[in-house]
Amino acid sequence: TLSERLSGTLANLRGKGRLSEADIDATAREIRIALLEADVALPVVRGFVARTKERAKGAEVSGALNPAQQVVKIVNEELVGVLGGETRRLRFSKEPPTVIMLAGLQGSGKTTLAGKLAFWLKSQGHAPLLVACDLQRPNAVNQLQIVGERAGVTTFAPEPGNGVGDPVDVARRGIEHARSTMFDMVIVDTAGRLGVDEELMRQASDIREAVQPDEVLFVVDAMIGQDAVATAEAFRDGVGFTGVVLTKLDGDARGGAALSVREVTGQPILFASDGEKLENFDVFHPDRMASRILGMGDLLTLIEQAEGAFDQEQSEKAAAKIASGELSLEDFLEQMMAIRKMGPIGNILGMLPGANSGQMKDALAQVDDRHLDKLQAIIRGMTPGERADPKIINGSRRLRIANGSGVSVGDVNDLVNRFFEARKMMKQMAGQFGFGGGQRSAT
Ligand code: GDP
Ligand code: MG
C-alpha cells in the first residue's frame, strides 16, 4: 500500500524550514502511482499532482510530521478540496415542485437511484413523485414502479397499451401531475444506452429542455474507472448536468472516477450509492472518498495522531514552563503558530462562549490577524538567545529588532512588556488552577 511504500521512501526527519524538492518529488511519485492504481484518468493525475507539488513547495515543515507524511497531508487536503470540500446540497425550487432529472448510461444505476432518492427525500418530509421516462426498454417502466412501491412513493407512468410513447410528453405530464396533486419533488428517470450515442443525448436534452429541471444528476458507475472522463464529457456536452451521483461504491473500485469526473466537469458530487438496497445511499463525503482514492485511511489516521500527540506534547511542555515562569518568546511563538493553524484568529475566538457580548466583541476587534503577523515578525527578528531569555533584550537590541522586522521600537517595547505581564499572569493562574503540577484540578 501507499502507506508502506512511503514509510520506506523517506527517513523520519523532523526539520525546520521548507519541504525540500527531493522530499516532495519522492512522495509525489508515490502519490501518482496511488492515483493511477485508483483508476484516476492520466491527464487528471498529472494536473492534480502538479498542483499539489506547487502547494507543497510553499508549505512549512511541521514539527509533528516527517516530510512524506506532510506531503500526504497536503495531497489529502487538496483532494478533499477538489472533491467538493463541504458537501453541496440539493437545490430546491422556490416554486414546488422541485424537478430532479437523472441521466447516465444504461446500467449506471439511475432507476435504482430514483427509488433511493425518493426514499431519502420522503424521510426528510418531502412528497416525491417518480416519473418514468425510460420508454426504451420494455421492462423499464415496470422496474421503476417496483422501485417506487418499495420506497413507498407514487410513480407516474404512461398508460400501458399506448405504443412506445414520447418520453418528453410523459415528463411534461408527470410534472403537471405533481403540480396539481401537491407533490413537492419530481424525480425523472430517463433511458440510457450501453454506450454514448447521439439519439440518447438528444432525447435526454429534449427532456431537459421541456421540463427545465432544478437539478440534472449525472449518474455514474464508480467501476467504470478510466472511461469516466469520456462519458462525463459526452454527457456534459450532450445534455449538461448540475451534479454527479456515484454508484456501486460497494464494489472494489477505488473511486478514481470521482476525481476524474469532478476535475473534468467541475460539477459537484452530491450523492453516493453503495448497494442495491434503498438505504445504501448517502450524501457524498469528500473526505471518505479522498482516503479511499489514496488507499491510506490508516496513514491519515496516523498523521492525525502524530499531530495530536505533538500538540499535546507541546502544550504540556508549555504548561510546565508557564507554571515555572520560564515561558520563552520561542514558546510563545510556537503557541501562536499552533493557534493560527486553526484558521483566522477572529473565527476561532468567535466560537468561544460569550463571543457576542459587547465587551468580547471589542476585544476580538483588536486581535486581528495583521496584529498577529506583526508580533510574529518581531519575534522572528530576535536571536534564539533573545527569544529564550527576553530579559536580555535591552535598548540597542530593541532598535536592531525593530529595524530588522520593519516595525517601530515602540512596537517591540510593547510586545516585550506585554509578554512579561502575560507570563506573570499566566504563572499565577497556573498556580491557582494547578496545571503544570501534573493533575489539573476540577474546580
Ligand atoms: P439504470 O439502467 O441506469 O436505470 O440502472 P439500474 O438502476 O437498473 O441498475 C443497474 C443494475 O445495477 C441493477 O442490477 C441494480 O440493482 C444495480 N445497482 C444499482 N446501484 C447499485 C449500487 O450502488 N451497488 C450495487 N452493487 N448495485 C447497484
Ligand atoms: Mg433504468
UniProtKB/TrEMBL annotation:
It catalyses: GTP + H2O = GDP + phosphate + H(+). The keyword Lipid metabolism does not apply. GTP binds at residues 104-111, 189-193, 247-250. GO terms for biological process: SRP-dependent cotranslational protein targeting to membrane. It comes from Pseudonocardia petroleophila. Keywords: Cytoplasm, GTP-binding, Hydrolase, Nucleotide-binding, Ribonucleoprotein, RNA-binding, Signal recognition particle. It comes from the Bacteria. This is Signal recognition particle protein. Part of the signal recognition particle protein translocation system, which is composed of SRP and FtsY. HAMAP family: SRP54 (MF_00306).
